[in-house]
Amino acid sequence: MTLEKPVAEPTPTAQVAGDEDDEEAKAGVDIWKYILGFTEMAVVKCAIDLGIADAIESHPDPSISLSQLSSKLGCCPSSLRRILRFLVHRKIFRHLADTNTYSQTPLSRLLLARGEKSMAALILLETTPVMLAPWLKLSSHVSATAATAPPPFMVAHGDDIWVYSEANPGHSRLIDEAMACDARVAVPALAEDCPEVFEGVLTMVDVGGGNGTTLRLLRKAFPWIRGINFDLPHVVSVALPPCEGVEHAGGDMFEGVPKADAAFLKAAFYCYKIVPR
């Protein structure tokens, strides 16, 4: 009988060296996530710009072929196929192998231009050069020695976001549309899950209410509430037309807020400063 030669156990030093090699190899792969990390954002924006989700949604059948989709969008089929392959891999759209067609997913429906729960406007805002530039100035803010160093947006554009938006109506409109799409998702959920919060509230001021979408949605759920949509003058000047039970008021929340039974604050970073007002 032949005895097998025992396998030598790796020495602790060899084991450590092997672990370090594995970590370095993994690091060499992971670094590409950061080198090309912008691609997901860019491709999703491309899908919104092209209207891929809208084209599939309006198609008479639940799924659509590449040739049909490229014809609807007026796109080069080979380029569109690459975009779709990326989006399918990220599970944004679905590829049906048996019919070689593409269909929607719950995630892709959030990219619809006019979908009830669309988040497309928020993506389009955050992918503008205006909103991306401050991120590239983050190091200058962190490395500043003074506690009162200007925020990255001001470093990039010379003004804070509200002054900049007043001087650039197109960007102001993007902000309003983005905040409105967020409200269409958040407000119905709030009204359904926390209706007791609004009991006894007869008047409500929405601080930083943008174009008035939030109060319109709240009044659908709680029609007895009279709403005051309060925002900067240049914002309310182009807000949605006033509707029954909702009025617009322009002003500066740091100087004063219209009186009401309750104040609604959504994504207001300085709310702790204005509550006493």
Automatic annotation (TrEMBL):
InterPro entries: COMT-like, COMT_C, COMT_dimerisation, SAM-dependent_MTases_sf, WH-like_DNA-bd_sf, WH_DNA-bd_sf. Signal peptide: none annotated. Keywords: Methyltransferase, S-adenosyl-L-methionine, Transferase. Residues 32-113 form the O-methyltransferase dimerisation domain. The keyword S-adenosyl-L-methionine applies. Residues 1-22 are annotated as: Disordered. GO terms for molecular function: O-methyltransferase activity; protein dimerization activity; S-adenosylmethionine-dependent methyltransferase activity. One of its GO terms (biological process) is methylation. Pfam families: Dimerisation (PF08100), Methyltransf_2 (PF00891). Gene3D superfamilies: Vaccinia Virus protein VP39, Winged helix-like DNA-binding domain superfamily/Winged helix DNA-binding domain. Residues 138-269 form the O-methyltransferase C-terminal domain. Belongs to the class I-like SAM-binding methyltransferase superfamily. Cation-independent O-methyltransferase family. This is O-methyltransferase domain-containing protein. The lineage of its organism: Eukaryota, Viridiplantae, Streptophyta, Embryophyta, Tracheophyta.
